[in-house]
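ok trying this again, last paste got cut off
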Amino acid sequence: MEELEQSTELMIRLGCFLAVLTGMALWEIFLPRRVLKVRKPWRWTSNLSLVVLNSVLARLLIPITAVAAALYAESSGWGLMHLVEWPWWVEIVLAVLAFDLAIYLQHVMFHAVPLFWRLHMVHHADLDFDVTTGLRFHTLEILLSALIKLAVVVVLGPPVIAVVIFEVLLNATSMFNHSNIKMPLGIDRLLRWLVVTPDMHRVHHSVIHRETNSNFGFNLPWWDYLMGTYRPQPQAGHEQMQIGLTSFTEENQVDRLPGMLLLPFSRNKPASMIEDADEN
């Protein structure tokens, strides 16, 4: 039964991943928001190769998935959500919200703690911002995130279907809100009440310190509104803003797989820890 559940989860996640990746890639071709700076074939090959590497190593080094952990917690009666009987749909909504808040807090932590930032800056070092940026994370960050997610599952004891829904949503919205797509500003303003949009999240990838440390949400925008970390627009505008990190600008280092894997061990001072001159 457990093997069937994990197999079904894998098929659902892979199908949604390919559908969203293809849809966003086509949207970027026909209606791009910005002109890209880096040659796409090399950059995409590196970013997607990192996804494959991370997926394989995560399966080998952390054999239990969040769904498997949820199945075990459910059968063992573990977790806060087993203390009270809720309607099934309330449990799903509460679990998805709790997971999303946990991801938001984890993201803030990865910016605030220098050691974690060295891992997370691989994501920020991309010289362009498109659908594959939402997939590129250092392998050690992926492994650490997986362990944090397992801990949240054990503490919450959420329904299995809630875990599957959240995993699919997180992956899909990460690709969506990192996409280099153009949409009417009115639609963008409306969507920001429900989901993190590309224009909202692009601000987070600015080289300007105060913009990098804003708009931490991946899925729901509400945590940024409530926590005071929301910034509506980049100072230089979306077409002119500079993407990446000021300390890492060499394409061979930040947009090639070997350089990406070695980036956290660079002697350069992490850019997010440096105040911009205009902020002093």
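PB: full thing came through this time. Residues 2-30 form the longest helix (29 residues).
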